[in-house]
Write a structure and sequence with these properties.
mainly alpha
């Protein structure tokens, strides 16, 4: 509990300094929204059919991007060394920054998706499961960002490999093309991608597509990814200090 309190304090510090300024909010929203609109326009989808994809892209890109930016900036400015001098473990530091990224992705996704659903009078089938799905997706995407930023000294060192992973993931996760239509080897890759399980869980929560067993399987995979990413991030942080 002591380590958790310390992690929450680190998260509060990051959110206060970096996260909810206007430029940061725009960065979290603009790219996924524009990317989704590029593929949505002309396809004849209703707002309800579009919501799962919009929510998945927003939570995935916002949750994974912001931690990359802040950790690299702290290394550049030298303020990260101050945290290393504190009586906290590297796992606690990684957890704190993951919590901050998770909170950012959660808020940045829920507010615009909620507003769009209200304005369009689109009914979300299960609002409770929608919030749970967004939360676990934000946690997994925040962990991915931490893994790739753990050893980066500059933003571009982490953002480049992150985009090399995220952008191809968009096209094989079932967002724009059903996974069943992909070649068999690509389908196998798709099912081990966290974004695939994010999309599937959100479609169940918003549209009722799929079944309960698949939904909870998706959540389980996202939780496993979040734990795995957190452990790997802590190990990479330790390695970067050697």
């Amino acid at each position: 509990m002591s380590d958790l309190r310390k992690a929450i304090q680190i998260a509060r510090k990051d959110m206060k300094i970096y996260y909810f300024s206007a430029p940061t909010v725009m960065m979290g929203l603009l790219f996924p929204v524009l990317m989704f609109l590029t593929f949505w326009i002309g396809r004849g989808l209703s707002i309800s059919e579009a919501l799962p994809g919009l929510a998945a892209l927003t939570v995935f890109f916002s949750g994974s991007s912001i931690g990359v930016t802040t950790l690299a900036l702290e290394r550049t400015k030298g303020t990260f060394d101050t945290q290393l001098a504190m009586p906290v473990s590297l796992l606690t530091i990684a957890l704190g920054k993951t919590i901050a990224s998770f909170s950012y992705g959660l808020v940045i996704t829920i507010i615009p998706v909620g507003i769009l659903a209200l304005v369009s009078q689109c009914q979300i089938m299960n609002p409770g499961l929608f919030l749970v799905s967004i939360a676990f997706s934000a946690l997994a995407s925040a962990g991915l960002g931490m893994v790739l930023s753990a050893t980066a000294k500059h933003v571009h060192e982490a953002m480049t490999p992150l985009n090399l992973i995220r952008i191809p993931m968009m096209f094989i996760s079932g967002l724009f093309t059903p996974i069943a239509n992909l070649p068999i080897p690509i389908q196998g890759i798709a099912y081990i991608m966290p974004l695939t399980h994010c999309v599937s869980s959100l479609r169940y929560a918003i549209l009722g597509s799929g079944n309960t067993q698949t939904f909870f399987t998706n959540l389980g995979v996202l939780i496993l990814y979040a734990i795995l990413f957190l452990i790997i991030a802590a190990k990479r942080l330790e390695k970067s200090l050697e």
